[in-house]
Amino acid sequence: MQQSALVIGGGISGIQASLDLANMGFRVYLVERSPSIGGRMAQLDKTFPTMDCSICILAPKMIECSRHPNVTLLTYSEVKEVKGSVGNFAVKILKKPRYVDEKKCTGCGICAQNCPIEVPNEFDVGLSMRKAIYMPFPQAVPRVMTIDKENCVECGLCERVCMAKAVDREQQPQEVELNIGAIIVATGFDMFDPSEIPAYGYKQYKNVITALELERLLSASGPTGGRLMRLSDGMIPKRIAFVQCVGSRDRREWIRNAYCSSICCKYATKEAVIVKEHVPGAQVTIFYIDLRIFGRGFQEFVNRAKAEYGISFVRSCPGEIIEDPITKDLIVWFEDMTTRTPRSLTFDLVVLCPAIKPREGAGELAKVLGIDVDDYGFFKPLDAVSRPVDTPVSGIFICGVCSGTRTGDVPDSITQASATAARVAEVLAG
Ligand SMILES: Cc1cc2nc3c(=O)[nH]c(=O)nc-3n(C[C@H](O)[C@H](O)[C@H](O)COP(=O)(O)OP(=O)(O)OC[C@H]3O[C@@H](n4cnc5c(N)ncnc54)[C@H](O)[C@@H]3O)c2cc1C
Questions:
Q1: Predicted local distance difference test score (pLDDT) of residue 256
Q2: 4-96+173-188+359-429 and 192-355 share one CATH topology?
Q3: What is the mean pLDDT of residues 28-48?
Q4: CATH for 192-355?
Q5: Is the pLDDT confidence value at 205 over 80?
Q6: CB 3.0 to 4.6 Å from 45: which of 143, 219, 225, 317, for a disulfide?
Q7: Fold of 4-96+173-188+359-429
Q8: What is the pTM of this model?
Q9: pLDDT of 297 above 90
Q10: Burial degree of 408 (CB within 10 A; 0-12, 13-18, 19+)
Q11: Is 9 touching ligand 1 by the criterion CB < 6 Å?
Q12: Ligand 1 mean position, distance from CA 401 (Å)
């Protein structure tokens, strides 16, 4: 039995599983596909229901992970091959070239200041620009720059200004081989693209945005420094609508997402409350099919949103959103369920809450690992009730949102992550 574990995915689930195992004395290799660990939680402004600052909770865990003597971080890396069985998996990992020496880079950012190329910033969901040499976000771990070769024009400016001589444009992909006792998969989720429902006008109308875009607009480290504004004209919105179940519970042939994404009711309520805190006089309306807000304290959270913040909950799934071509206001058409008649309301800003989807590449990773996916492409547990974090492959476990929307929020993800760590410890000790 190798007394080591491989954790795939460095979001809150993978970070928690890694820390639990490392604290138990196991050697942990944490593989993250992007340049920094953190996952989606790093993009959030505040977290429900306590309204704590998301990055303030996450960043200490990210740093603990990077400094823990039992954890080796392999960022900007992907698992390419897994052979063997529980107790002794032979794993091949591809470490992509950053074109920056991780050991030399101090993360000072002078290279980015001098880089002439600007491209949409993925971390801000395209609402701001970043340079071709970049740090994904200010609290990134490791604190190292990465050159995005696809957009780099090879001007050499970054190399010239780097005092640490860290830029290495000749860097090559590296293959890392490891022998591992057990594997935890925690690759998280992607989001449904609302432009697949043209009637909602996403990408056609600037003032129709997604909930993740709103998180970035509300965040002090976001593109507007935390000032909520319309993208069409910079106006502070006073009438804001949230539309739930965008691509969730939708059986239309080209969507085929019959499942509930499980977190949207909670985060829409949270975002509505934060919007009211940013714009106290605002009228905020949440359109919902039905409120699926289970979990301790959540019904009370909704009650407070209604009573203390005056947020309106309208039971209806809007059919169409139309933009006024002059004011850029948005007319939301929906069926009034009390009178059974079509109605419309006008808003300054509409926030769509898109379905949660399996991560891009989840199917390929499942093949590499030999584990199953469900009808929608999420990793499938051995038994959802009695073995919720096991897979049919002994020694391979799943946690967090990659295992489906039964685990939607951060507390659920952390609980599952600790469950996988406990199962790994059990297997390796046995
Ligand atoms: C708009 C919005 C608001 C939310 N608000 C809240 C809230 O207020 N409170 C709350 O509790 N929850 C909230 N959530 C849910 C929260 O974001 C998730 O519970 C949490 O991010 C799940 O963490 P995870 O680690 O499972 O997945 P992720 O955060 O998605 O992390 C997965 C990580 O794995 C990496 N990865 C993916 N594929 C690979 C691969 N093949 N190899 C290596 N690495 C890979 C990714 O790059 C990523 O870093 C919100 C979600 C959304 C969309």
A1: 87
A2: yes
A3: 97
A4: 3.50.50.60
A5: yes
A6: 219
A7: FAD/NAD(P)-binding domain (3.50.50)
A8: 0.97
A9: no
A10: buried
A11: yes
A12: 7
